Amino acid sequence: MIQHLVDGILVGSLLSLGAIGLTMVMHILRFANFSHAELLSLGAYAALVFDGVFAAILPPLAAQIGPLSMTGALALAVLASMAFTGASALVIDRLVFRRVRAKGGELSMVFASFGVALILRNAVGLIFGLHGQLYSKDIVFAVVLSRDPLLLVKPDQIAALAVALVLMLALHLVLSRTTFGYALRAVGENPGLAQVHGVNLTATIRWVWLIGGGLAAVAGIFYGLSYQITPVMGRDLVLPIFAATIVGGIGSIYGAVLGGFVVGIAQNLALVALPSGYSPSVPFLMILLVLLIRPQGLFGEGRA
To answer: Does residue 304 lie within any of the structural domains?
Structure first.
């Protein structure tokens, strides 16, 4: 039981990073972006490419960092992948979503996001193949945190949790202590009124895509580091990420963080009572439960 709880917390931290970007887009741009989970896959594969490039250019960076399977090259690749994935999200918005947004409604945006998701997923599979890949083939043994009860955690999972918490704290400080944070929240509440008061709506939307894409990249990389990366990892994670967003409340970044942990813990604790094949259905059941009991989620914010 405790092992499943710890695993749920570790997975939940990654779901939270993915849900933050999704809830920002859903609240500010007013549509359910089903292609957001594919940014996790895009970021994971981008890091795989950057990792190989940095290791080839600077061979000393190919050495592992302490007990982690992560190398210095991969650590730099994380930063490069964040920038690449954020820029890719921005390009996708300019090529697809902005044009649909100008001529269509919310439903058209949702259908467009399905199309973008299929294009990204199949493009990644075409370029990298359909088989799973690993960042490192070296075996990293789990650390025994407790023997009674037995509790095992991989160093990579601890690093992923630490990085996720640091990014969440940094985002919290930006939202609560900076003018940009105030502008972002104002646009989420009432875009028209925020624009009247001098907020640059176009620039704010750009930053939403950049931040969401960057956080999605980190989530995809550390998820792949803990397991493996595949072209369909976005498809497999889209339901848990949406569940985290809905449980936390659309528009609430803090709700997305909490929702990610709730979904991750629930999905792993379900393994205690249910066969492993039923675990993927837990996020779907959580969405139904929240919509029936509290449609606005735990920390849902009002919309103007």
So the answer is: no
Spatial CA neighbour of 227 closest among 154, 150, 146: 154
Q: DSSP states of 143-162 as a string?
A: EEEEETTEEEE-HHHHHHHH
Our count of domains for the chain comes to: 1
Distance CA 126, CA 208 (A): 29
Tokens 């259908």, residue? 111
Q: The domain spanning residue 277 has which CATH number?
A: 1.10.3470
Phi, psi of 145 (to 5 degrees): -85, -30
Q: What is the pLDDT of residues 99-154, one digit of tens each?
A: 888 887 778 888 999 999 999 999 999 999 888 888 877 766 667 766 777 677 88
Domain membership of residue 206 (yes or no) is yes
pLDDT in tens, 159-215: 888 888 888 888 888 888 888 888 887 887 777 788 887 888 888 888 889 998 999
Residue 299 lies in a domain: no
pTM attached to this predicted model: 0.88
C-alpha 97/C-alpha 211 separation (Å) is 17
Question: Considering the domain boundaries, does residue 303 fall inside one?
Answer: no
Residue 35 domain boundaries: 2-293
